[in-house]
Amino acid sequence: GLERGAKNQFSTFSNFITTVNQKKEGIGNRNSPTQHVIPNIKNVRDLPPICLDVRQKQRISVDTLPQELKAPVPPEPSLPIRTKTVKDFQDDVEKAKSSGDWKAVHDFYSTTFDSFLEINAAFKKDTNSPFNTTEDSGINAKFVNVVYDALLNTPQDVQKSVLKGIINGLLQEWKGPRTKDDLRAYCILLQNPQFSNTSTYVIYAHLLRQIAALTEADHHFLVHWSKKISQKRFKQLVDRLLQFISLRLFPAKPEEFPPMVKCTWWIPSAAKVLSLFNAANSLISPPIISYTEFYNSTLDHIDLMEEYHNWQCYGNSHRFSFCQYPFIISIAAKKVIIQRDSEQQMISIARQSLVDKVSRRQKPDMNMLFLNMKVRRTHLVSDSLDELSRKRADLKKKLKVTFVGEAGLDMGGLTKEWFLLLIRQIFHPDYGMFTYHKDSHCHWFSSFKCDNYSEFRLVGALMGLAVYNSITLDIRFPPCCYKKLLSPPIVPCDHNTLVGICDVTLDDLFQIMPELAHGLSELLSYEGNVEEDFYSTFQVFQEEFGVIKSYNLKPNGDKIAVTNQNRKEYVQLYVDFLLNKTIYKQFAAFYYGFHSVCASYALLLLRPEEVEILVCGSPELDMSALQRSTQYEGYQKTDLTIRYFWDVVLGFSLDLQKKLLHFATGSDRVPVGGMADLNFKISKSETSTNWLPVAHTCFNQLCLPPYKNKKELKQKLIIGISNAEGFGLE
């Protein structure tokens, strides 16, 4: 906010405008680039409306256009000559601070921000150069930063003069397309720190509206220019936009803003501009800031399902929904959408089964409402795959697991146990479906050819069931897997369309086979003669069941030598061969299996990294966070037994902490919302202290006898959590 001067320096924008309106008689020719225009509030609000590009059931983003694409370039008007340098400006500020005379600084600010032409005259690196490319905005970023850093420490009349000048520029009557100087001015104005103050939000909203309404080609330039902004400034811009959205949704002082019905375009405009920064962020590797920095946690408190249904129902209209900009929605909020969407599908499928049964005059059975899995522990994989194969029509019903010969009733705990044991066995190297890479600590699909890939489909269905039933799995797939799983996010109607194929890079290979990727990286950077020293062709070799087989990366690849000129193509084809082509049938079966359960438009909202979090949860255990959120029944958190318990648990090794989590909850993974989402409870067991602790995994509940000392508690707890397989009834 603004730090100097009276606390209510900009009490409301309306008051400021009222004061300014008293000077209306001074208005001259409106088209003069440096003429000061004083608007009334009506003019401010009646700027051209923004037209949203809402695509049905697709996320809105800025399409990165080809570099050669240029917007129509209107003639640039000649700029005024301004010679002030960073050093000159800093000297002026220092003199003003020491003398108290801010006239020189005031004149600089009021002149510079009086029009878009003046902004360019002050901050353009070279006023004689057009700077019409995406590679260089031509903005003197250092000067912009110095001027804005000093602005908040100037007297209020200086700060008000800047805002008045910005209003001038926004009210200019535009004729024809925007020039690159106009785009530069927008880029500079967005960085104004005054827009962190709610009293400036009316002006800020109109700035955002004009930027949002620019052409796609203009947006293309702004995206590429934005990626050159420093990380600190970039994050400030994003945070300012997120704060603007949050405070418009939930204003601390509603009277500060116009009524919501009169400014429904505020949030859509801000979301569109935020999408430009999101696009810029995605163009850089690594990104400028984490994708999680775009999350707006305020949206966790709105009716997300209404947003989701609006997006599904009105996707082709101009009706706004945050689902059009999924990068703003947090993973916790997306999980809620997916859970509720899954629940609605479960209810719908169960209702249909009931109706079908009644229509055939058959007696309804409660079991028909569930996907009932009956498996033997000794034949876990074969029984599970048989059950899933036979009950494909029931995959979207609520999952219920029974272990043959055990009396446990599945209220959620047996399901978690089944997933954990099944995944552990399927991914064992001896099973042969997946290869474990020790260097990267992850699994990847075996490239061995076989006659039937149905088991891969069933593994995909298993992973889909976990997401559908909100179960986290201990699966170690590389990020590339989840990128392929969303390629495309909705199963295509045409079965001839390739699925699970995505653009892969050397970075993706590094995450799976780091040693091979390092070798290919060395090839790319080799300074000698590649053809003579490596003597390689566009042909690669793989061992399959003890037999070496050769594959051409392109037609007649065995006759094409790898040279300094074509080595990039060789590396790209090799990576594509390893991560797409050799495992295509395996991954396609896996893809169809996953989407046979998780067929939801909600998947369009997710990034690959978010799918991984939904499937696997987080491996990071914060037992202190668990302690803070734990509920007690029969105990108080100050009781001696509870203090002994947490002393012991916080001193456990990571392996023992995971065993405790598995013992009490049925999974050793942390859900999306963190430890607090476990709803972990410790209950007092009125049994003898000779007994071991007991867990109700369906309810994430640990029943703890009141052991007499810490040593006894630790001994009994370790025995209990280290021998925890099987269920019984009390």
TrEMBL record:
What are the UniProt keywords, alphabetically?
Answer: Ligase, Phosphoprotein, Transferase, Ubl conjugation pathway
Q: What Gene Ontology biological process does one annotation of this record name?
A: protein polyubiquitination
The EC number on file is 2.3.2.26
Q: Where is the signal peptide?
A: none
Every HECT domain range: 391-730
What's an example of a GO molecular-function annotation for this chain? Answer: ligase activity
Q: SUPFAM superfamilies this protein is in? A: Hect, E3 ligase catalytic domain
- What is its biological role? E3 ubiquitin-protein ligase which accepts ubiquitin from an E2 ubiquitin-conjugating enzyme in the form of a thioester and then directly transfers the ubiquitin to targeted substrates.
User: What is the name attached to this protein's record?
Assistant: Probable E3 ubiquitin-protein ligase HECTD2
